[in-house]
Amino acid sequence: MIRGDVLRRFGRLDDAEDALLIVRDHLPKNFVRWQGNLLVAEAQLYYAERDVESCCELAQDALDILEETQSVSTKAKIERLYVRLQKLHQLLVLYRTWEGVLPSGGCVMQLSTDVVIIGGGVVGCLIAYQLRKLGLRVIVLERGVVGGQASTAATGLLAPFKPLGKLEDSYLDLQRTSLALFPQLVEELEDLTDIQVEYRQTGTVRIVPEKQASRLEKWTREWQERGVEMNVLQGEALRQLEPALASEYQLAVAVPSEPQVRAAYFMQAVALAAKMRGVLLLEQCQVISIERECSRVVAVQTRDGTSVACGHVIIAAGAWSEKSRDAV
Ligand SMILES: Cc1cc2nc3c(=O)[nH]c(=O)nc-3n(C[C@H](O)[C@H](O)[C@H](O)COP(=O)(O)OP(=O)(O)OC[C@H]3O[C@@H](n4cnc5c(N)ncnc54)[C@H](O)[C@@H]3O)c2cc1C
């Protein structure tokens, strides 16, 4: 009865919004998973403008699920559908930003973009945000949930100096240049997202073995001569700065300029900012292969069958980056 009613409406697609209301009215209120059907219906609104046939197909899917209420095996089906619907929902958002990103034919799982980023940690999302600001279309593919790995677990210290490390080090130069841009980035992200990331210039204290005292003095002096504020702390001076330190630690170097953020908040802000700028973040999308034509990367494939054609791929898969690179 409901099915016929809704299908008749969808069949005509005169007014997709009517169809949405009908689906919503008939949803059982006690089954939260069925919220997914609302997303399907929203997707109808979106696809109605593009491809009548796929709208009907999606409506059919939703209605099939609605009919199979009690079956346990249906639950797994609903879960799969739910993941798919979340992606559709994200596409809906994307559509408002990027006209024409979806290929014709209504196949929602074949996307195309300028850049694919593998990994939705802080690195992937921040690169995505910056590239989007330059006007590129960017899709981030995340195999779990955005920010679900190291980036949220991190302590949030932004502390590039490694005691007694090399003075001439291009990686350290990069870190310091990046750190100098941080306050401006924080301001931008906080303004855009309203998430406070708790950036504070608290300074750091790093313990160094006592036998390294003379090397540490020399190393610190070198940095001071280069304009970096840095102090060697010993005994009482060290304990005054950090009274909770165990008594066996007697030597340390303090770098007052090194800041920190609340890593989990920073991650949230970066992901939200990327989304707000129009980056498409697709979760539950594990990249399993990268396709090439001659020497060029042309697409990536994900485990759930999504194919994303692209001009560039950036591997930002954290601890799994090497594995992802092997997929090339
Ligand atoms: C306990 C802890 C404390 C830390 N403290 C600090 C600190 O104080 N200061 C500091 O600078 N750093 C710290 N770090 C390190 C810091 O967290 C990482 O360097 C940083 O988060 C790395 O970011 P990422 O985006 O590269 O990796 P991740 O946050 O790990 O993101 C990589 C993402 O890629 C996804 N992925 C992997 N393979 C695939 C695939 N095939 N397809 C799709 N997606 C895929 C993963 O699911 C993951 O979400 C800490 C780390 C930990 C664990």
Care to describe what's here?
The longest helix is centred in the N-terminal third of the chain and has 26 residues, at 72-97. With 328 residues, the chain is α/β, with parallel strands linked by helices. The strands form two sheets. The protein has a six-stranded mixed β-sheet with strand order 6-2-1-9-8-7. It has a three-stranded antiparallel β-sheet with strand order 3-5-4. The chain folds into three domains: 2-91; 101-151 and 265-326, FAD/NAD(P)-binding domain (3-Layer(bba) Sandwich); 157-261, no CATH class. The chain has helices spanning 2-12, 16-26, 35-47, 52-67, 72-97, 122-133, 150-153, 170-180, 182-193, 213-225, 235-241, 263-276, 321-326, and strands at 110-118, 138-141, 204-207, 231-234, 251-255, 280-282, 287-293, 296-302, 307-315. Helix 3 runs antiparallel to helix 4. The structure holds flavin-adenine dinucleotide. Flavin-adenine dinucleotide (FAD) binds next to helix 6 and helix 7.
Comma- or semicolon-separated keywords:
328 residues; alpha/beta; FAD/NAD(P)-binding domain; 3 domains; six-stranded mixed sheet; 13 helices; 9 strands; elongated; disordered N terminus; binds flavin-adenine dinucleotide
Cofactors, ions and other ligands in the entry: flavin-adenine dinucleotide
Whole-number tally of structural domains: 3
Instruction: Determine the fraction of residues in helical runs and give it as a percent range.
Output: 40-55%
Radius of gyration: 26 Å
Uncertain stretches: 1-17, 27-35, 46-53, 99-108
Distance between the termini: 51 Å
> What characterizes the major β-sheet?
6 strands, mixed
Number of strands: 9
**Strands ordered across the widest β-sheet:** 6-2-1-9-8-7
CATH topology of the largest domain: FAD/NAD(P)-binding domain
What's the assembly state of these chains?
A: single chain
CATH architecture verdict of the largest domain: 3-Layer(bba) Sandwich
Structural class: alpha/beta
What's the pLDDT, averaged over the residues? Answer: 78
Q: How big a fraction of the residues is strand? A: 15-25%
| SS element count, helices | 13
What top-tier CATH class of the largest domain fits best? Alpha Beta
Name given to the CATH homologous superfamily of the largest domain: FAD/NAD(P)-binding domain
Order of helices and strands: HHHHHEHEHHHEHEHEHEEEEH
Q: What would you call the shape?
A: elongated
